[in-house]
Every structure is written in structure tokens, then in C-alpha cells.
Design a protein that fits this description.
The complex is a heterodimer of chains A (188) and B (397). Chain A is α/β, with parallel strands linked by helices. Chain A has helices at residues 4-7, 33-38, 57-70, 74-77, 87-102, 110-114, 119-129, 146-153; strands at 11-13, 19-30, 52-53, 82-85, 135-140, 157-166, 175-185. Chain A has one domain. Chain B has helices at residues 25-33, 76-91, 117-121, 127-135, 142-146, 164-177, 194-201, 235-240, 265-279, 295-308, 321-324, 332-345, and strands at residues 10-19, 22-23, 102-106, 155-158, 183-190, 226-234, 247-256, 286-288, 315-318, 347-348, 363-364, 370-371, 377-384, 388-396. Chain B is globular, with a radius of gyration of 20 Å. Classes of the chains: A alpha/beta (188), B alpha/beta (397).
């Protein structure tokens, strides 16, 4: 399992090539303990939280986001933007919806329609936490290194959530590794 | 700040549309001013969940032709986005998408190079038809929309249900402010397809009659198709190219929270107030509402608009969705275009389909073109399932 969190540098340069933002915490959560072990990110305890296993993707995402946002200073915690790299999930959810549309043995349900949206993974956390910052669910079509630069350039802090999916035996369910990284701008 | 352009402002320099009124922003705007609705049943639309409801279809004569003669047919979704992008680029004075531009595509999920239809449906015998349907559900495709010279590492795809295009404009604004690109091109499109129609039908959102936003007799959404594109850049960059920098994306609030449905008055009110705060303006002169025509959704938005309206005069509010239908992920662009043209022309269009407006106290729901010659600030609302709420604020300098 590749995790981009493990490959990213701890700092991202600003437009002048100086350190623009610094990674201040990485939180890993997943629906599969073996995947968590494979994805382990090393670092000091205050920068890398102990990986955490959960029952569902939404629960894993909620835990990872809570841990990452918690590392940000209180004044910016509710307003820091959240960038979610959720392209694989969007594709998987759309394919699941397509399968259900073609399933002659099961009626389509309203929950299938809502289940199309990747926002359903982050909504439990953002709602419970009273998050008022921007949230972007995006799929970089090649590379994602620019995201932290976008994330902190407009403010003092941001969280980037990287979602990886595990194919399972049942095509209508998926496992997930959620890597939430809190970034702080070095200058505000 | 208000009324005083700043070099770091993010401005709109190009807009492009394909709608059921045809190709171009101008036919769309004229249709709105005339209060026309082009919603009608589509006998040839064969989706299993379709029951003959009025829909907004792009005239077949306005479909995009292949990029090169003899090439494979471009999926309509990408073809419409390509036509809209070309118009936006022309309006911005650009001959093509600049290599260093950021491209932001709006849709349900990124276009897939290989759809594996038999895997997706378990019905290999339907593979051809299913692949065509998937081409109209996923995407738009980046190369099909922007051309083969596109720098793929500058492309992102956003997915925020029916609020996607508004989120995409805000994301582009954030990236431009961060200095990550001098220009951003946002494009989204939607075409009638069995999957998205099913997604709206199963939640009982589709109206049996043409959509009538804010009307007391409204009964739901009419689905439309089309595409929209926006070129954004810093005011400094626009001026350096000799382009007008009069239309500023002055504020935005794009968040995910609340209930699954897009009908929470408190959240909509907070979203609009956050966007107006971000724009540092003390009033809004007109609003282009999300207003799809659902009973609950329109009521929730209207209550929020009443809460936000604070001027001496009633706040003019209109919606385009009774004219062309709901373009789903792309719907934010025709909304943005209507607001932009209202600011530039000093006219708020009526809401097509609106005959008997809901009672309002501080909001005005025009049923004919309304002159607003002093309007300088407009808000655009765009909401979606899954707690996706967006408001953009435009300032006309």
C-alpha cells in the first residue's frame, strides 16, 4: 500500500521557494488493521498519531479528521479549510450506483442516491465539529503535491485528507485508508 | 474595499454556456429576460425511471462535432463542456487553455478511460449501450473538453453534488490567490442520462410538470442538460492582458455540513452570511437562487433569503431552473452567468415558470425584468445533497 503521506515532504515551498507550510500532524485510520500496518508513517509522537482501526470508511474518516484538526490552534480549528482527495471514492460510489440501477432484484432506494456523494464521508465530522471552513472534494488527475500549497496559501492552516480504497469481496462495500494531514503556514 | 478594485482580486474574464436555449451566454440571457421556458417532454429519452416529465434538452443542432473530422464521436457531456469552454476562452481573449492554467472540472466522478461495462453492470450483453450511458454520467473528460495539449498535472476534478460548479469556482479562486496559476478555467456539464435521472427520481424530486421555482404550486425539479465554463484570473493579470477586470469573485462560502438533503434554512443562512463576510460587503443587491422548484428546498432557501435581506428595498431574487431545468453538477455556471449579467446590465430577469409567487416580506420575486441600475453586489446560491452548500458573491467594479 502506497500512502502519499509517507512520501510527502514535511514542508511545502511558497511562491518564493521558501518553506511555506509545514506538516504538523498525520493521522491514519482504516477499516483494516493489516492495511494500517502497511501504511504506517514514522515520526515523532506529537506529529504522527497511532494508527486507528474502524468499522466503516465514514468512521475512519471521522477519526482521522478529528485527530488532524485537533492539532491545529483553537482559533483556526473550525475555519481551516479541508481538502479531500476523494477521486477514487467518487468513482467507486458512481460505479456502485450504476450496478444498483441495473440490479433487477433490488429496488433503487433514496439512500442509494445520497450514497453517491463523497461528502457523506466527511459530513459526520464537519457537522459534529461545527466546521465552518471551506471543504473541497477533489481528484487531482495527476499528482497531488500542489494541494498543500493551495491549502495554506490563503490562510494559516489546513487539513488534507487522502483516501485510498481497498477492493473487497463484495463490490458494494469498500475498505478505506484515511490519511489526514494537518498543515500550518510558516508565515501568516 | 467595496467598489475599489485591487490587483489581488480574482475576476471573471470569460463565461461560456450551452443550454437548452442553444449555444452561448447571449441566447440564455435573452431567454431568461423573456421569461421563456423550454422545458418539454422528451419522447426519445429512454431512461427506465423517466415518466415523460418535462426536461430541458440542448437542441440537437447545437451538439458538438468531433474535434477532428473522422474521429470518434465525442461524448455529449464532454462535447458540451468543450463548446462552453471555447466560448469562455474567446470572451477572455484566449485562443486556448494556457499551459500554466489550472483546470477545474465539475462532475459526479472523474471520466474513466476504460469503463469496464460488464464489471459495472454484470450485463456484458448491454456493454455498448452501458458504455454510452457511463460516458454521460462520468466526466467530463479533460482532454475531450480542453484539448490534447492540456497539462494533466494542472487538472483537478471536483464533486459536490449539485453545488459542484460553485465549489469549483471557489477552489479556482483559492488557487489563484495562492499564486499557483495565473489563470483558471472551470468547466462542468450535464446531459440527460439514466443514472442521474434515477438519482433524482428515486428521492421523488422530479416534478410531473415544468419546474416553477418559488411558485406556490411548485412540485419539484425539471432536469436539464448543458454545460458552463468560467475563466478566472487575478485582476492584475487581466489588466496586463488588456482585459476588463470589472467582475470580481469577492467572496465565497463553500462547506459540507448538516443534513443529507439541501433544505436547511439555518445552514443556508449561515452560508450566505459567511460569503458576504468574506466579501467584506455590507449589503447584497440581488441573488440568483439555487431554487430548483422543490417544495421544501425553495421554502428553506426563501426563509434564509428573508433572514439575509436587510436593505431598505426588497431583495430581488430569481432562478433560471424554470427556464432550462436543473443542470445538476454544472448548474452553478448558468447561475453565475445570470448574476454577472444582472450586474453588468442592471436588470434582474424574472423566474420562468413563476406565476403565483410565495408570500415574502423582504424579498422580491420578479415576474418580469426588473431594473436595478445601482446594483453592485450579487450572491449566487448553489446547494446539493450530502450537505454541500455554496454561496458565491460577485462585485461589479
Amino acid at each position: 500500500m502506497r500512502t502519499s503521506a509517507g512520501e510527502r515532504p514535511d514542508t511545502v515551498p511558497d511562491r518564493a521557494g521558501r518553506p511555506g507550510s509545514v506538516r504538523c500532524r498525520v493521522a491514519l485510520a482504516a477499516t483494516d488493521e493489516a492495511r494500517l500496518a502497511d501504511a504506517a508513517v514514522t515520526g515523532p509522537p506529537d506529529r504522527v498519531t497511532a494508527p486507528s482501526a474502524h468499522r466503516t470508511p465514514a468512521e475512519a474518516v471521522t477519526w482521522a479528521l478529528g485527530s488532524a484538526f485537533e492539532s491545529l490552534p483553537e482559533p483556526v480549528r473550525r475555519t481551516a479549510p479541508l481538502y479531500v482527495l476523494s477521486g477514487d471514492y467518487s468513482t467507486w460510489a458512481a460505479r456502485r450506483f450504476v450496478r444498483r440501477c441495473h440490479d433487477t432484484g433490488r429496488r433503487l432506494r433514496p439512500s442509494d442516491s445520497i450514497g453517491l456523494e463523497a461528502s457523506e464521508l466527511v459530513r459526520p465530522y464537519t457537522t459534529a465539529a461545527g466546521h465552518r471552513g471551506a471543504c473541497y472534494l477533489l481528484a487531482p488527475l495527476a499528482g497531488d503535491l500542489f494541494v498543500p500549497g493551495v491549502a495554506t496559501a490563503g490562510g494559516s492552516a489546513a487539513v488534507v485528507l487522502d483516501l485510498s480504497l481497498f477492493p473487497g469481496g463484495d463490490p458494494d462495500t469498500t475498505g478505506c485508508l484515511a490519511v489526514a494531514t494537518a498543515w500550518r503556514a510558516t508565515r501568516t | 474595499m467595496e467598489g475599489h478594485p485591487h490587483v489581488s482580486d480574482i475576476v471573471i474574464t470569460g463565461l461560456g454556456l450551452v443550454t437548452p436555449f442553444g449555444r452561448g451566454v447571449r441566447p440564455y440571457w435573452n431567454g431568461l429576460l423573456e421569461g421563456r421556458s423550454v422545458l418539454a417532454p422528451a419522447p426519445d429519452f429512454g431512461a427506465p425511471s423517466y415518466r415523460g416529465e418535462p426536461v430541458g434538452r440542448v437542441p440537437r443542432a447545437d451538439e458538438a462535432s468531433p474535434r477532428t473530422p473522422g474521429a470518434a464521436r465525442t461524448p455529449r457531456k464532454s462535447g458540451y463542456a468543450r463548446v462552453a469552454t471555447a466560448e469562455a476562452l474567446r470572451a477572455a481573449g484566449l485562443s486556448a487553455v494556457p499551459r500554466d492554467a489550472l483546470v477545474v472540472l465539475a462532475g459526479q466522478a472523474p471520466a474513466c478511460p476504460a469503463h469496464q461495462p460488464s464489471d459495472a453492470t454484470g450485463e456484458a450483453s448491454q456493454a455498448g449501450a452501458v458504455t454510452a450511458d457511463l460516458d454521460e454520467f462520468f466526466g467530463p473528460g479533460p482532454v475531450e473538453t480542453m484539448g490534447p495539449d492540456l497539462a494533466r498535472d494542472r487538472v483537478v476534478h471536483l464533486s459536490h453534488a449539485c453545488a459542484t460548479a460553485a465549489f469549483a469556482v471557489d477552489f479556482a479562486r483559492a488557487a489563484l490567490r495562492a499564486g499557483l496559476a495565473p489563470v483558471a478555467v472551470v468547466a462542468g456539464s450535464s446531459v440527460l442520462n439514466r443514472y442521474e435521472y434515477a438519482s433524482m427520481s428515486v428521492v421523488r424530486a422530479v416534478s410531473p410538470a415544468a419546474a416553477r421555482p418559488f411558485d406556490v404550486g411548485r412540485a419539484g425539479v425539471s432536469i436539464g442538460e448543458g454545460a458552463g465554463a468560467v475563466v478566472l484570473e487575478t485582476a492584475r493579470h487581466a489588466r496586463a492582458r488588456g482585459r476588463a477586470a470589472d467582475l470580481v469573485v469577492a467572496g465565497a462560502a463553500c462547506g459540507v455540513a448538516g443534513g443529507k438533503a439541501a433544505s436547511d434554512t439555518g445552514l443556508i443562512t449561515a452560508c450566505m452570511r459567511d460569503a458576504l463576510d468574506d466579501a467584506a460587503v455590507d449589503r447584497v443587491d440581488l441573488v440568483h437562487a439555487h431554487a430548483t422548484g422543490t417544495v421544501q428546498g425553495d421554502a428553506a432557501e426563501l426563509a434564509a433569503l428573508e433572514a439575509v435581506a436587510g436593505g431598505r428595498d426588497p431583495l430581488p431574487v430569481s432562478s433560471h431552473k424554470g427556464a432550462i431545468g436543473h443542470l445538476l453538477h454544472a448548474s452553478g455556471v448558468p447561475a453565475l452567468a445570470a448574476a454577472a449579467l444582472s450586474l453588468r446590465t442592471g436588470i434582474v430577469p424574472p423566474t420562468p415558470g413563476l406565476g403565483t409567487p410565495e408570500h415574502t416580506d423582504r424579498v422580491l420575486l420578479p415576474t418580469a425584468p426588473l431594473s436595478v441600475p445601482t446594483a453592485r453586489v450579487a450572491a449566487v446560491n448553489s446547494f446539493g445533497f450530502g450537505g454541500n452548500n455554496a454561496t458565491l458573491v460577485l462585485r461589479h467594479n
